[in-house]
Amino acid sequence: MSRRELAALAAVLVLLALLPAVGNNYVLRVGTTMLMYAVLAMAWNFIGGFAGYPSFATAAFFGLGAYAGAIVQSKGLPAISAWIFAAGVSALVALLLGLAVLRLRGHAFAIATLVVVELLREIVNGWVSLTGGGMGINLPGAMTPEQGARYYFYAMLALAAITYCAMHAVAIRRLGFGLRCIKQNEDAASMVGVNTTVFKSLAFMLSAAFTAAAGAVYASWTAYIEPADVFDIMFSIKAIVMVLLGGAGTLLGPVLGAVAFLALDELVWRNFLTLHTGILGLLIILLILFLPMGLTTFSWRTALGSWRPAPGRRT
């Protein structure tokens, strides 16, 4: 990371850290949600952006992390320890799942990860003695609404910063190089010495760990979870759309995509409540069509230049 990028990142973190001093609970809730989706998008970037594997398992690991964290927290484990525990459990599950699903590619891999979401949801629904089944789990809360809004905003901000640093570390090291080789041509990468099985497994585990940590923080934040809520497939779809919107395989793309997606979502929801979903989908399709490499490739100079009249043409 260059000094300029480091300074810009530090400035953004400082500005975000000051938000609780000037924002009310609504602003902090929107900010916490935005940071949570930024974590999900960055986590998906490990396996989907760098390695090019279209994973829909975000909802699976988000739900698994939420339940793993909630269960041990309800048994008396402190919240931060519960979040770390949830990340570790999900990384282990991703390692075991990866032995099977990472042998697949393309559409087959995508469908297999969709099945994982439904499989984990049914296990949680059926294991009533541990998870509460469809009734969900309540978590104890000892904070006032104002204290909780500030605490979980900072918790999600810290998690987003850690996820970004991990993504940057992967991108500049051999793991990132190997994953990009796999994305370009997996067979060729294997022939030149890239251990594709190990690299893909590490990317899948990192993706699962950070997604699960976000799920565990979400469970503590909302103080109540149920299977239909935390295993919602929209978590997977939104994370993918955000990365495509911002720029897959880039460092800033997932963050920009999450901010742009949620800003558009909030804007359209406020002004076109009944047509919200249709208009939001149309806007995202247009953005992806005109910026196929994502918002990170957007240039004001190029955009303004495209509107200038051709030489010799009357205006």
TrEMBL record:
GO terms for cellular component: plasma membrane
Keyword terms: Cell membrane, Membrane, Transmembrane, Transmembrane helix
Residues of the signal peptide: none
Main localization (coarse): membrane
InterPro entries: ABC_transp_permease, LivM-like
Spans traversing the lipid bilayer: 33-51, 80-102, 109-131, 151-171, 192-219, 239-264, 271-291
GO molecular function, one term: branched-chain amino acid transmembrane transporter activity
Top-level taxon in the UniProt lineage: Bacteria
Keyword Secreted on entry: no
UniProt cross-references to Pfam families, sorted A to Z: BPD_transp_2
Topology of the protein relative to the lipid bilayer: Multi-pass membrane protein
Record-given protein name: Branched-chain amino acid ABC transporter permease
Localization per record: Cell membrane
Annotated source species: Ramlibacter henchirensis
